[in-house]
Amino acid sequence: MPIYTGRGDQGQTDLRNMERVSKDSRRIEAYGTVDEVNALVGVVRPTGHDDIDKHLREIQNHLHIVQADFANPQPDEDDPRITEDHVDEIEDIVDEANEELDPLQSFILPSGSEPGAKLHHARAVCRRAERRAVSFSAEEAGVNETAIVYLNRLSDALFTLARLVNKREGVREENPEY
Description:
Elements: E1 12-14, E2 20-22, H1 26-44, H2 50-70, H3 84-100, H4 114-139, H5 145-168
Antiparallel strand pairs: 1-2
Helix pairs in contact: 1-2, 1-4, 2-5, 3-5, 4-5
């Protein structure tokens, strides 16, 4: 099967239900930005830390579900959807990582080791994906609000994992100067 079809040459794309929409629609912006997050998470793997890599692989699978969820304006019961269980999994990742970290006392500069800095970058793009999803949900009814909550928690997880990688690699956190 060829990768190119030509169907998108006029600035339109298909949703999961085969409805044609503009490539600059808020829906497409939302799940396209989620795709960016997924690609950035893929760039950081492997981090050199098996437990973190396992979490990141699971996150990448979740992000595919978010994309499928956002691409489907009329989901059936058996269609991929983000659920509270996915949110709980992300919260568990954050809680587990925080057990190994010193409490956060102030803002930190997004930097550090190569995998740590890449995770900070993924976190920033995840925040943008969340903003795009909020905008898209304000425009269209029936958006899975749990997917937006998931993106919010995911940005926290990516931040926490960046801190954890940096700690394990002996990189000291830097605070901004005001």
